[in-house]
């Protein structure tokens, strides 16, 4: 059995009911958050994440598939929403971060991906001094119930994200774009590898395609995404303010 860990996780193992897990301290964030400038965002999160982050689409297989992400910084490995190891409490904290150190992972048996997902945890967090998630009878304890709900809802929401991204790609609505920023001091920044919806192409879709976008709730996400692009200027403001505070 091969378990593929999500981006940012080190080594994950299945969570057994007799495992004790050392949960992260409140307010702390995973180590990988300090080294990335974008994080996956799911379908439902668009309506809240668009208030704080630029939401764009990326591809890791030359356009065969796309995925939505929230942009966190203007440079490689730059997260402008972290301060002293904690996420800015005044902005929305993505579910990808909130679920850590747990996840629902894809499993391969004999090189065949299984339909069901397996609840896993970072191996480093299994500790005899940690907390049990289940009682002696194998029933979920109150501590585990909200975690399990988050994992299941987030995984289902990611599937809706994949469907949405596939529709946008099939309708040829995604176009590559880059962002350039020139601070008053310092070098110019150029952020590439991003895709956005070409709003002009929406009017050329046929009635059936328009109906499908509305029926599946994709149209609302499209405009949340387009509105969120204005947050690139807020990212630049964050970068400038951070540089000034560091002086």
Give the N-to-C terminal Cα separation. Answer: 51 Å
**Arithmetic mean of pLDDT:** 90
Largest sheet: 5 strands, antiparallel
Number of domains: 1
The run of helices and strands is EEEEHEEEEHEEEEHEEHHH
Structural Rg: 20 Å
Name the helicity range: 25-40%
Q: How many DSSP E strands?
A: 14
Q: Rough shape?
A: globular
Unreliable spans are none
> What's the number of helices?
6
Secondary structure class reads: alpha+beta
Give a structural overview.
- This protein has one domain (2-240).
- Strands 1, 2, 9, 10 and 11 form a five-stranded antiparallel sheet that branches. A three-stranded antiparallel sheet has the order 4-6-5.
- Helix content is 28%, strand content 23%.
- By secondary structure, it is of the alpha+beta class.
């Amino acid at each position: 059995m091969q378990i593929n860990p999500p981006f940012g996780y080190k080594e994950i193992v299945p969570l057994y009911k007799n495992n004790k897990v050392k949960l992260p301290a409140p307010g702390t964030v995973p180590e990988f958050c300090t080294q990335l400038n974008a994080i996956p965002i799911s379908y439902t999160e668009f309506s809240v994440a668009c208030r704080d982050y630029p939401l764009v689409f990326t591809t890791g297989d030359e356009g065969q598939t796309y995925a939505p992400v929230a942009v966190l910084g203007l440079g490689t490995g730059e997260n402008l929403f972290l301060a002293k190891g904690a996420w800015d409490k005044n902005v929305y904290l993505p579910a990808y971060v909130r679920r850590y150190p747990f996840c629902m992972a894809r499993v391969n048996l004999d090189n065949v991906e299984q339909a069901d997902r397996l609840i896993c945890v970072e191996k480093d967090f299994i500790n005899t001094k940690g907390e049990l998630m289940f009682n002696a009878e194998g029933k979920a304890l109150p501590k585990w119930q909200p975690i399990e709900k988050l994992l299941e809802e987030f995984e289902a929401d990611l599937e809706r994200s994949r469907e949405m991204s596939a529709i946008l790609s099939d309708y040829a609505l995604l176009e590559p774009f880059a962002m350039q920023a020139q601070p008053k001091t310092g070098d110019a920044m150029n952020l590439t590898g991003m895709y956005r919806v070409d709003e002009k192409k929406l009017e050329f879709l046929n009635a059936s395609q328009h109906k499908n976008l509305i029926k599946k709730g994709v149209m609302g996400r499209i405009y949340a995404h387009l509105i969120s692009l204005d947050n690139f200027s807020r990212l630049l403001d964050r970068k400038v303010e951070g540089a000034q505070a560091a002086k």
